[in-house]
């Protein structure tokens, strides 16, 4: 197992010779749509550090897009994967079942918000979980309309592309999209200035007037929007919306694929608002780096689909299930919810102090280890995508793995593994601060 010094080390400029050679092969072997944020190739990871093929040790503020919350190649996860792989790599749960799947389902049933009876079905990717949550909501309600939001991201398959808001790069030229998907405004306090009640009233009015309450099968929302800009809705927005769904017989789906599984300092981001969704989708952080996703929720809704109506050849792969169980154990045993919360408080406090002296920072926001800086024109508050790209590029060249997001491309998002040591997190934040300073 890789044990890497938890320090940054730049051996070559990136891409170094090994990475350049791979880059060349990738350009001719892979479609150009497959772009990457970092100009290098990975060799191994350990907690907060990723070592590339040229021996550069980088600080990881991306967690492979919010996946390796417990750290890349975390020792207990690797041990669980190894043991499982030596015994059973695949049977298909639809052919011969195995215990690990049931174990993961029981854990998610217990961990997700709400105490009424719940059930879980497992899938492979986030998009696949979203697809199945929508299938179940439609089957349960006998209705078709699905409400999604401005700035939403729910995946890249045909149905989930339709639910995703951003045209470029996700949707352009890939239509037509599935019918009966309706996009409404959500809550973006920095830009709309509305409190939770006012934002919910606007959303609900639009649903009722343009779709009709009795047509709505589901409302699907990210409790903190990920790809769309790490947007934390105003307090009260989610609970008003959830109440409307309850009153009108619509299924409230929380897409916790990015925000769930300890990322925000709680098991699920909707817990911060005391919201109990009907269905919750999880993926990314669930299995410590292995592909696994889930739909968890009300037993009645989950049982609305008949025998054989859910599943897929690889869904709930036993190795991925073993990795998930080790990941969930790790979060409990190492109190990683608390750790995510601490990282968030430290990070936000620091970014607030930068903001006090830098009017290009429109907002520093987030919860736990899901934090962001929205960069704007100091005078007009217009999104500054060029500055954001320049800051990210400067930080990356100094050895920080850093992602951007946002409908307007003007948000720097921080997603460190929560097992990252404090000193390394501080060093990464120092690189980001310097990268911002250098672009003035
Ligand atoms: C990443 C993401 C998805 C899609 O997950 P994939 O595994 O990439 O299909 C869906 N919803 C949210 C909120 C996400 O962040």
TrEMBL record:
Cited InterPro entries: 4NH2But_aminotransferase_bac, Aminotrans_3, Aminotrans_3_PPA_site, Class-III_PLP-dep_AT, PyrdxlP-dep_Trfase, PyrdxlP-dep_Trfase_major, PyrdxlP-dep_Trfase_small
GO molecular-function terms, A-Z: (S)-3-amino-2-methylpropionate transaminase activity; 4-aminobutyrate:2-oxoglutarate transaminase activity; identical protein binding; pyridoxal phosphate binding
Domain of life: Bacteria
Keywords noted in UniProt: Aminotransferase, Pyridoxal phosphate, Transferase
Pfam family, one: Aminotran_3
UniProt family annotation: Belongs to the class-III pyridoxal-phosphate-dependent aminotransferase family.
Keyword Transferase: yes
PROSITE patterns xref list: AA_TRANSFER_CLASS_3
Catalytic activities: 4-aminobutanoate + 2-oxoglutarate = succinate semialdehyde + L-glutamate; (S)-3-amino-2-methylpropanoate + 2-oxoglutarate = 2-methyl-3-oxopropanoate + L-glutamate
GO biological process, one term: gamma-aminobutyric acid metabolic process
EC number(s) reported in the record: 2.6.1.19, 2.6.1.22
Cofactor(s) needed for function: pyridoxal 5'-phosphate
UniProt-recorded name of the protein: (S)-3-amino-2-methylpropionate transaminase
Pathway linked to the protein: Amino-acid degradation; 4-aminobutanoate degradation
